[in-house]
Amino acid sequence: MRYLIASDIHGSLPAARALIDRFHEEEADRLLLLGDLLYHGPRNPLPEGYEPAEVAKLLNEHADRIIAVRGNCDAEVDQMVLDFLCRGDYALVVDEGTTLFLTHGHLDVRQTVESLPAGSIIFSGHTHVKGIGGAFAPVPLEGAEFGVKAQKVCSPR
Q1: What does the DSSP 8-state code read for residue 134?
Q2: Which of 32, 46, 48, 53 has its CB surrounded by the most CB atoms within 10 Å?
Q3: If you write DSSP's letter for every residue of 88-112 in order, what string do you get?
Q4: Shortest CA distance to 47 belongs to which of 58, 35, 59, 39?
């Protein structure tokens, strides 16, 4: 299964369009969204092309292929305009025996992460939790048959 993973769209329509274009270019099966989809938050400036209602419509066109978690800027009211669930602090995806743990990174999930099966892969939009390194620091995956491509489309974080 091919995944495209993104975080922190913050209601930016140009960023959402770039993301969906990339989703199609990569021929991904699923779009994994790690939170902060529609709202920019009171501490952040408005992102370029801030149009959260249009971002929701664009994402909803792919609702059957999206798995999403909520970020610190997401609110219950956002769920009213989204056709896919975006309420959980984390989500688990199991693909061919490997567990993918999805989180935005704004909550301390160390206890949950400790209970994951060996070989699990953790995806975090970013982290607001100081000291999450140590046992949870990235490690190289020897013999892994997947590729990671990163492209920034919106948020400065």
Answers
A1: G
A2: 32
A3: -SEEEEEETTEEEEEE-SSS--HHH
A4: 39
Print pLDDT tens along the chain (157 aa).
899 999 999 999 999 999 999 999 999 999 999 999 999 888 888 999 999 999 999 999 999 999 999 998 899 898 899 999 999 888 999 998 889 999 988 887 778 888 888 888 888 887 665 554 555 444 444 544 444 444 445 554 4
Burial class (CB in 10 A: 0-12, 13-18, 19+), 83: middle
The SS3 call for residue 65 is helix
Are 155 and 10 spatial neighbours (Cβ–Cβ below 8 Å)? yes
Does this model's pTM top 0.70? My answer is yes
For the CA atoms of the chain, what is the radius of gyration? 15
**Beta carbons of 5 and 36 less than 8 angstroms apart:** no
